Amino acid sequence: MAEIKNTAIETFLDALASNQATPGGGSAAAIVGAMGAALVSMVCNLTIGKKKYADVEAEMKEVLAKAEDLRHRLTGMIQDDVKAFDTVMGAYGMPKETDADKAKRDQAIQVALKEATEVPVRCCRLAREVIDLALRASEKGNLNVISDAGVGVLAAYAALRSAALNVFINTKMIADKSFVDAKLKELDGLLAGAEAATEKAYGIVKGKVS
Description:
Elements: H1 9-17, H2 25-45, H3 57-92, H4 99-140, H5 146-171, H6 177-191, H7 194-209
Helix pairs in contact: 2-3, 2-4, 2-5, 3-4, 4-5, 4-6, 4-7, 5-6, 5-7
């Protein structure tokens, strides 16, 4: 398949719905997070340059720059997830006829599982940042498009929690306890407060559009 980020949405969704293992939930989490960042960018773009919002223009420019960086990084992770999963499958497919084969295969599986864990952890980090940016956009963005800040924060939260599931499932199969503990501790930190920030942004937006 061509680089996923360069394919049409319908093509991507067809691939997602197919009987192939990739792209899967990890890629979906990344693109949902990227969509959240894109919506934050849109709110900023439609706030910047408006006289009514001149007092928040500098902040909105800052939020826009960060949101665009996150959008591009999350979009790149769509393919990263596919590569990581394919590497895991390749490791599981290695020969296991002899003890040496088995040892080599087991080592390759563990290395691949660690990378397959790093990818969704990175996705969680980025999605958490998008949540914080969406909160700022919901507080100070153009009222005419403020509902999009609400959609953006919900998308980012969905991306965070979705990517977290891939961290949980992969760490169950990793033998390196120190690695697992470190990743789960970081994940707990990323999840902590995310729901409250999301609900705060959603409440702000709902209050403005109701």
